[in-house]
Amino acid sequence: MDHTTFFIQDKEVGRGQPCFIIAEIAQAHDGSLGTAHAFIDAVAESGADAIKFQTHIAEAESTPQEPFRVKFSKQDATRYEYWKRMEFTPEQWAGLAEHANERGLVFLSSPFSEEAVNLLHKIGMPAWKIASGEVNNPLLKEAMFATGKPILLSSGMSSYDEIDAVVDEVKSKNLPLAVFQCTSKYPSPPEEIGLNILREYQQRYQVPIGLSDHSGKIFAGLAAVSLGASLVEVHVTLSREMFGPDVPVSLTSTELKQLVEGIRFIETALENPVDKASMADSLSEMRSIFGKSLVLKQDLQKGETIQRHILSAKKPALGVLAENVNTVLGKKINRNIKAGEFLKIEDLVD
User: Fold this and answer.
1) Backbone angle region of 54, left / alpha / beta, with phi > 0 → left and psi within -120 to 50 → alpha
2) I need a labelling partner for 27 at 20 to 30 A (CA). Which of 176, 213, 272, 300 fits?
3) Which residues contact 61 (CB under 8 A, 6 or more apart)?
4) What's the pLDDT tens digit per position in 70-84?
5) Of 91, 138, 144, which Cα lies nearest the Cα of 116?
6) This prediction's pTM
7) Alpha helices, H only, 206-298
């Protein structure tokens, strides 16, 4: 089956389709259900296609021995306690999904345990994002694959051998697949974003390619679309003053809107190739406004010869065009012309 395009809910993704823009919230809600709902409204206003959370169930995925990647929490002694505080009930997750759909957004959430897959599957998860740290977790992947939904594969910590293995597995199950270039540095410096890898992935895997960006800027996403990315995922925060480890790698909701507008602008430009010859013809009237004609700097009497030092170029293009200056030098005029007048072709004699 050809999966160069596929659907995520009602959005077609892939070759020839608009870029699928995902706003990643992760844990930016800091365990507040109200804040999570506020993110949905903010992302909907930006024009993005999807909002993505992360579904953590502490007991199913972690232990009290799990260390913090960055020790940021003022209230959680362990990473396990933090995951516990990030949990929502199945009913709350269903409410978030319903709210997102009401606002025209595709609702996504990355699961980090089989239990999370089961929870999200019950509320209608339309596609699965395999996070960078879960590429080598067969238990989680098998649970996702069993649902028959499209797979969005992140590659931030993986070698080509590891990515190849997952791609082969997904293709063997005939599931739609998109592969994301991702750099697991927070934030990612520009020299490590790996925009060149987008085309490497396109050639290697022959599936839709995306960029999961951690730079905290809009620029990488814009460049990715110019290079053919079919999906772009960025972290989002409501404010740079918000709490949490992902704020430095996130766009504000205002910046997200700028990214969306920029991507749609670039898509329109790429979809409308310009024929330079016909464009020049269509701009002939504009050329007459911006073009310049030859004007005399001093009075000339009939029969006098035109010399370079008595000519200047001024707008608009009402007489002999400035570009034709060499063709009039040495010619005589057939009437008296005052300084400041445009030189016309009918004024000239050999």
Assistant:
1) beta
2) 176
3) 83, 112, 113, 116
4) 777 778 888 899 999
5) 144
6) 0.85
7) 219-226, 253-271, 276-282, 284-290
